[in-house]
Specification:
It contains four helices and three strands. By secondary structure, it is an alpha+beta fold. The N and C termini lie far apart (109 Å).
Amino acid sequence: VPVLRRSAPVTSMSTRRTARVAAAIRQVVSTAILFELRDPRVANVTILHVEVPVDLRTAKVYVSIMGEKKDEVLCLQGLNSARGWLQSKIADELDLRYTPVLTFVADQGVKKSIEVSKSLRELHMEDEQEDEQEVQEDEQEDLTDEIGEEESPTD
């Protein structure tokens, strides 16, 4: 009979620790990118959040990159080439048994929300223009009706 081994249960203490470590990694990485990284490919990038598993051996860094698709690809290449340097920054700043291996992921959420907002604004502008045009047409009809009443003889 095979013995099934269960991993250690996830306690609130371990989830709090991973949340603290994720926040610390986010702080170290964003500060290093903002003030120390000199790669011209890495521009217009924002660190949104970091996901760290309970074992703290890896970290997914979600980034938002403004610009075109080619800018996004170049920025991700720059971040990936600076991965080792950023990991050494984490090792210097944080007291962890293992330095997490960083993985950078482009988060499309911010871009999508900007696109949706822009589309809604355009729809709102179109509705306002249609409403304005209807008001002008109604005013024109009212003027035409008034002129027609003045010209017709009353019995």
